Amino acid sequence: MTLRLLFAGTPEFSVPSLRAALAGGEVLAVLTQPDRPAGRGRQPQMSPVKQVALEHGLPVLQPASLREAEVQAQLAALEPDLLIVVAYGLILPQAVLDIPRFGAWNVHASLLPRWRGAAPIQRAIEAGDTQTGVCLMQMEKGLDTGPVLLRADTPISNTDTGGSLHDRLAALGADVLAEGLARLAAGELPSAEPQDAAQASYAHKLDKAEARLDWAQPAALLERRIRAFNPWPVAEVQLDGERLRLHRAAAVDGHGEPGSVLAAGRDGIVVACGEGALRLDVLQRDGGRAIAAADYLNARPGLRR
Description:
This protein is an alpha/beta fold.
């Protein structure tokens, strides 16, 4: 059976899954968020999903909302078998979920019910989780509450960043989606595993204000946040009267007044925290580029210890 598919997604994370959908069935149309102003010129830019869709000659729909009866009628007229949703960014009302013959599947970047919500990749790193993964979920009205059809896991290393884990989970999500589509096309609908709501945690959307780190917090937590917030929104601190953005750091032994420099040299800048100390390895000054801490010290020799 050739599956008639609708695909809904917006950012780069969605692109591998769109390619899996193209290989696993007939993509009737692609839903993505409206073009947004971006860059210094604030010119409207297409989403990564829209760019790939146009490359493949697919119809692209960009409604501001899916609650309008006209939009819902347009989707129903396509007579899809399945709607695939991957980081789309708009709420899907029940009327839309009910349109496809097999409902809607969502590729979600966590091992549900762990980390429902908007930022599961970053929250897993921030919390110190040692494992995460992706779930193929049958969508229902609740936020990421639907039963899980397939899942795949991956370890979180102590060097993973939000960026590295994002790329790995995007590829893993496409693999899981491809397996699900192959089973469905063969008439073998994957069995659904209900989630245990008592085990659920919520991954709040990232906020730029979170990127401002407090030296009074434990070094281990600050290290995880630096990794989680790389490449966005990028952690920042005040050090010796200057604002710095931190791209790489490591928790180390040390104690002193939080925010005080304990050591500074070729191996990095060690700063005391509420518990332990943080060694700054790669940082960025306002208006500059990311550089090694040793290079930064060449411009700030007074920090050397």
